[in-house]
Amino acid sequence: MTKKIFRTKSINEFISETKMDGGMNKFLGTFGLTMLGIGAIVGTGIFVLTGVAAANYSGPALVISFIIAALACGCAALCYAEFAAMVPVAGSAYTYGYVALGEFWAWVIGWDLILEYAFAVSTVAIGWSGYFNNILMNLGITLPAALTMAPHDGGIVNLPAVLILAVVAFVNIRGVKQSSFVNNVIVAIKLAVVALFLALGFSHVDASNWVPFMPFGWSGVFAGASIIFFAYIGFDAVSTAAEEVKDPQKSLPRGIILSLIICTILYIAVSAVLTGMVPFMQFQTTAAPVAFALQAVGYHWGAAAVSVGAICGLTSVLLVMSFGQSRVLFVMSRDGLLPKFFGHVHSKYKTPARSSALVGVITAITAGFLPINAVAEMTNIGTLCAFIIVSAAVIILRKKNPNQQRAFKCPLVPLVPALAIVFCGILIYMLPLVTQIRFVVWLLVGLAIYFGYGYSHSIISKTRRSTVPAGSAAANMNPAAQPTKGH
Question: What's residue 36's pLDDT?
Answer without folding.
Answer: 84
